[in-house]
Specification:
Strand content: 15-25%
Oligomer: single chain
Order of helices and strands: HEHHEEHHEHEHEEEHEEEHEEEHE
Number of helices: 10
Helix content: 25-40%
Strand order of the largest sheet: 6-5-4-9-12-14-15
Low-confidence stretches: 1-5
Mean pLDDT: 88
Length: 258
């Protein structure tokens, strides 16, 4: 059975739904139906489709742009999830790195895939808060700088205010960031305030910021905000809907689908 592409009318209606939900906690199916001038059955089909693509959170009787808070898994568990997708994202990110670049590698399983590919580049300066990335890079021949700070066992990273003494004294051309959630309304979010602190500081010190996340994190909000959509220059992911991608690029963030 072949799937027919969504019509232009349906795409326009989805954008209207996003616009109606922006800035409000939630709307019921009935409220959306009246605002859009379509049946409630049509609204329910749209919400089901959009929820499946991570554009919003559907609940019984309505929808919201705020999805349930993401809970954090152990690093070893995350590393083994969506391996093919993360490898594609890492390969796409590697193409953005030139020999001799000064780069930052954030913590996270997807950025770790990128760390394992950096042997294909020469004379990099790599700044990182990830002990896992540092482990793979310690014999790479690249210049390696650890940011210091408090050790966070769950993510195996160095985070918090103690990282500022290093980060505020250096800068880098490209920062490759990970996160637990990313949405059009709330931007980047994570589960830990100290980790969010370090992410914000890193993005202020970088000329270009690249967010590397798989599709399961799109439309998801975690506990602590770590930056807005405007802080991201390029999103690199394995899949995103046309509606999400177009809206993000309207806001000034380029999207690369790996």
């Amino acid at each position: 059975m072949s799937l027919r592409p969504r019509s232009t009318v349906a795409e326009q209606r989805e954008q209207q739904i996003v616009d109606l939900l922006t800035g409000v906690e939630s709307l019921s199916v009935g409220e959306l139906s009246r605002s859009l001038g379509v049946s409630e059955a049509t609204v329910r089909r749209d919400l089901s489709s959009m929820d499946g693509r991570g554009l919003l959170h559907r609940y019984h009787g309505g929808a919201s742009l705020t999805s349930p808070s993401a809970s954090e898994q152990l690093f070893s568990d995350k590393e083994n999830l969506l391996g093919d997708e993360k490898r594609r994202i890492a390969q796409a990110a590697l193409s953005l790195i030139d020999d001799g670049d000064r780069i930052y590698l954030d913590g996270g399983s997807t950025t770790l895939y990128l760390a394992k590919l950096l042997e294909r580049r020469k004379n990099l300066t790599v700044v990182t808060n990830s002990l896992m990335a540092a482990y793979f890079l310690m014999e790479s021949g690249h210049r390696l700088v650890l940011v210091g700070g408090e050790f966070r066992a769950l993510s195996r990273t160095l985070v918090g205010p103690l990282t500022s003494s290093i980060l505020e004294s250096i800068s880098f051309e490209k920062a490759f960031m990970g996160t637990m959630g990313f949405s059009l309304t709330d931007g980047i979010s994570t589960s830990d305030a100290a980790e969010a602190f370090t992410k914000r500081l890193v993005m202020k010190r970088a000329n270009q910021v690249y967010l590397l996340i798989d599709h399961t994190k799109l439309g998801v909000n975690s506990f602590v905000n770590a930056g807005g959509v405007k802080d991201i220059d390029i999103l690199v992911t394995d899949a995103a809907s046309d509606t999400f991608r177009n809206r993000l690029e309207e806001l000034g963030t380029k999207v690369i689908i790996a």
